[in-house]
Write a structure and sequence with these properties.
By secondary structure, the chain is an all-beta fold. It has one domain (about 20-115): Jelly Rolls, CATH 2.60.120. Helices cover about 0% and strands about 60% of the residues. Strands 1, 2, 3, 4, 5, 6, 7, 8, 9 and 10 form a 10-stranded antiparallel β-sheet that branches. The chain is globular and about 45 Å long. InterPro entries: ChrR-like_cupin_dom, RmlC-like_jellyroll, RmlC_Cupin_sf. It holds the Pfam family Cupin_7.
Amino acid sequence: MSTDIFDFIVNSHKMEWQPLIENGIHYKGVFVKSLRYDESTKRSPSILLKFEPGASYPYHNHPGGEELFMLKGSCMVNEAFLEAGDYLYTPANYKHGVTSENGCEFMLNIPQEVEIL
């Protein structure tokens, strides 16, 4: 294992936003930046998501829970309004959908893959 701290820093502002495509489904208006890729699970548990105005992500389950920190803008998680600076801890097996009327950016930590319902 490296002991160089620079091997563990991600300069997300230098990364390009990528369209969110999961299992062949393109979620229009939703973009992602991978902050950490886990080779053992072949997925990124720590990501940034950006929603363009009017974008949404369908109702889904979080088998391993989720942590969300709002960076910019606002969104609705079910009936809860979140804006920049808000933190949401979603317990394991909690279900919700996300929409953003005006656009937003947030960081997610998702220990297990979500299940679209």
